């Protein structure tokens, strides 16, 4: 099929633009909130590890001290002077030493050789000044003032009397300082500048309680929002999917009627039933997966990867390399073992079939005394079966453990690299925890993407099958200028009618020509049921002939309306006697114009009223596979009552072919005798009594009318007709309706 059938199906059947947009927005929101929750986890773990404390200079590693020395030298003289002024040192010479760019500038300022040993201690003061400048640049002046309050302020007075080794708790500012040279610093600075509650000291002088409470409330809010978004996504996706699935099922249902009766007989209703159930469900799964996963899973995976990169870029690259290794090595090896398992399963099935054959040969073995030969064969087959089963078990059992082992090795390697990073000081414990959580969380969207791809593949195959069915040309369409057909007053006439089976191309009818006068009865007999059914289906125009025409009231039924034609023609066929519903609905076909008294009168005419009254709920009794079971004769009389309720001028009746009791046959004969007056009846006759009573019998063989006449005439002149009756005699015990054949 040209193009993507699933895309065509979405275009033709998936509407609800508002719901689709809502599902997309919900997908985006769910992915974004997931990423934000992981980021909040990072802030939370960092707060627990560092407790919002800004480290002292002595706690820095050698690399960090060297990095800070470079930063200090890069600050302007004005910035260094302003920062050192916040330290409130009175000694001008010491102030001058503090504002120096490096140790080399400090040496000429030493008043004695002993004072050179004090230079190293003064780097701690520079560190405080540097932190002040960092907070002023990254956040704003208020954050810097919170760390080093101006001289004369209340907080400055409190700081003078405090323990110099104490580290105040500033919440998020601790992270801002420690990551000041990372590319995440501008983002953290903006967050701190916008959300003052993340670092402003409380009544106790600590910002941690407020910061922790804020993180908790924010996490609760994000979790609640994400829950609402996921539920909205599920609801909207289900609504759109169910609407589309219902439309597809409706299209398949109506198209079965447009295809024509012979087509459905040839391919069977199983195809349409499978389309309505399995195929439509697969399409529904694909549509639902697209709405819920096409945006959500890739976006969630991308955002989580961004979070991983934010935590540690090089470790994230290591993870991607290991993930690629897992897929290339583990995935391919596991796929190899799965193929081995499937091959072994086929071999085991073949070996088991041979064993079953050998077990069934016991008569032959005993008769020809081939016990030793057969025992050797069985031993060889048992060995082959054992080898095949071992191959099957090895493939099926090793695939998953092997893949799991490769994943475990990759995880241990990644953990080792992360631990090395933590020990080297280039990676934090908080970063390690968040990296682990992000990697675990990444599994769900990645698995969802694989599931999405599998469902899309099955959906495309199902959509191909559905459109292949829907694109089949329907038959017996009504003409735009069709005429109204009045009640039959003359005859039904077949003129050179030829019909090919629409499904197989087999020729069913060949130049069939005959006529049935009004108020007459005729029977069609023949060895091929398909030919007889095809002939009957032409009368109500369930399908059109390949060539030739059927005329009623001298009107070609091709050019009359379906409604007027089928108002005059009622059909009673064994394939469609009853359906699962109440008896009243089976007779009245749910038409509100048919009152219960009318339904009862039709049932009485068909000799069905008596047994209906004995049912548990009378005419309201549910019949069918899930209700009360009726016999073949009872179902036939219900169908006959349905046809009589319409009071048609033409009746097409297929007599029961199975065993029917004599009392029922007598009732049917009485009914047919009473309804034949004033009607034209075409029988697919099964009983000799019917063949004797009709005005004319037509023998259909090889798609042609081979002979016609009364029963007596055909018994004398038609070998085919006599053969059919003799066959009926031979099966009289199975079909007692034919036991009175002469």
TrEMBL record:
**CC terms in the record's Gene Ontology section:** plasma membrane
Q: Which GO molecular function, any one, fits this protein according to its record?
A: ATP hydrolysis activity
Query: What positions belong to coiled-coil segments?
Result: none
Q: Which residues cross the membrane?
A: 23-45, 209-229, 301-329, 397-419, 425-450
The answer to whether keyword Chaperone applies is no
Nucleotide-binding recorded as keyword = yes
Query: Which Gene3D superfamilies does the record associate with it?
Result: ABC transporter type 1, transmembrane domain, P-loop containing nucleotide triphosphate hydrolases
For this UniProt record, the keywords arranged alphabetically read as follows:
ATP-binding, Membrane, Nucleotide-binding, Transmembrane, Transmembrane helix
Cellular localisation: Cell membrane
Q: Where is the ABC transporter domain?
A: 492-727
The way it spans or sits in the membrane comes to:
Multi-pass membrane protein
Main subcellular location: membrane
The ABC transmembrane type-1 domain extends over 203-458
| Pfam assignment, any one | ABC_tran
UniProt name for this protein: ABC transporter ATP-binding protein
Q: Which organism is it from?
A: Gemmata obscuriglobus
